[in-house]
């Protein structure tokens, strides 16, 4: 798994990212090509990405991008997708059609198939069966490895025990993690448990929906729901963003590069959302350096009181 990946939640999302196919699709496909050229070859998606009738749009766009690569380039790309445990996807075979549909949209087997969220809050008895279904996908050749998403430390330990019986080890756990979403860092939290179990942590929303890029001010806000959130939070982030800006200058980087390298410094694989070719250059550059222990500690301290500001995923389990 690459040290920095690419998240594609915004690819097809109208609610938060005002996606419009005629405007955005050419740019997203150009972004995909730029990522591959830059060596950013780990892409994360989900079968539920895409608003309303556009559900699955992110996988479709990735499939289109993959089809335009040379055979050698396609071999270098790793694609992870998440399958949503909707209430109607029941039992061990509940993901069979969904996994087949994802493979068709992507035009290839799935490298890492993930349970999108825990069913602990509405159907806890389903979780083991669905995980067995994901391990079946690996054993049948439809996927190469299994991961989890939005899973807390308690459910994580149960899942690892269940999967041990199948002979298919858990490869990764994906959680919301950034300077503004630090819950996985708590004692006994996901990062600690994953270090103990030897499981990779994938950090989604490492830029906190764009709040940590340093590109926005209260006078220059994104549209829609993100703009409302930014207007409320940006004034409280000024000291942190100033510190990130200083560190970025020291490394010839950007605040976004500092944000993803803070995630890397805590042992995770960040997957920032990239929507435009010019976003790729900052992430390519960010791979070439790491934070010092002093810098990481300074960011830890500066962000400590901000750790509960960001809305958390309601599907995150304990």
UniProtKB/TrEMBL annotation:
GO molecular function: oxidoreductase activity
Keyword Oxidoreductase on entry: yes
Gene3D superfamilies, per database record: NADP-dependent oxidoreductase domain
GO CC aspect terms: cytoplasm
Domain NADP-dependent oxidoreductase, first and last residues per copy: 3-302
Pfam families (UniProt xref): Aldo_ket_red
Keywords assigned by UniProt, alphabetized: Oxidoreductase
Entry annotated with the keyword Nucleus: no
Protein's name according to its UniProt entry: Oxidoreductase
């Amino acid at each position: 798994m690459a040290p920095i990946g690419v998240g594609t939640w915004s690819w097809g999302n109208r609610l938060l990212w005002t996606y419009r196919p005629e405007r955005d699709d050419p740019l997203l496909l150009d972004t995909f090509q730029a990522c591959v050229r830059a060596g950013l070859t780990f892409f994360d998606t989900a079968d539920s990405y895409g608003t309303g009738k556009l559900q699955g749009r992110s996988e479709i766009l990735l499939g289109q991008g993959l089809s335009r690569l040379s055979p050698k380039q396609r071999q270098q790309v790793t694609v992870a997708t998440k399958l949503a445990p909707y209430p109607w996807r029941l039992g061990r075979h509940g993901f069979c059609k969904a996994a087949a549909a994802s493979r068709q949209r992507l035009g290839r087997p799935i490298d890492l198939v993930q349970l999108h969220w825990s069913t602990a809050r509405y159907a806890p008895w389903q979780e083991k069966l669905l995980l067995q279904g994901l391990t079946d996908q690996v054993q049948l050749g439809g996927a190469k490895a299994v991961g989890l998403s939005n899973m807390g430390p308690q459910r994580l330990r149960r899942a690892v025990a269940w999967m041990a019986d199948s002979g298919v080890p858990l490869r990764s756990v994906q959680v919301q993690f950034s300077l503004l979403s630090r819950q996985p860092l708590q004692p006994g939290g996901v990062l600690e448990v994953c270090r103990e179990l030897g499981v990779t942590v994938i950090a989604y929303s490492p830029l906190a929906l764009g709040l940590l890029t340093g590109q926005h001010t209260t006078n220059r806000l994104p549209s829609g729901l993100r703009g409302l959130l930014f207007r409320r939070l940006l004034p409280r982030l000024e000291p942190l963003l100033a510190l990130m800006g200083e560190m970025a200058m020291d490394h010839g980087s950007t605040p976004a590069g500092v944000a993803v390298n803070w995630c890397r410094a805590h042992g995770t694989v960040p997957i920032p959302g990239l929507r435009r070719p010019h976003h790729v250059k900052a992430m390519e550059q960010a791979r070439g350096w790491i934070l010092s222990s002093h810098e990481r500690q300074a960011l830890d301290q500066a962000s400590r009181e901000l750790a509960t500001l960001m809305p958390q995923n309601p599907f995150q389990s304990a």
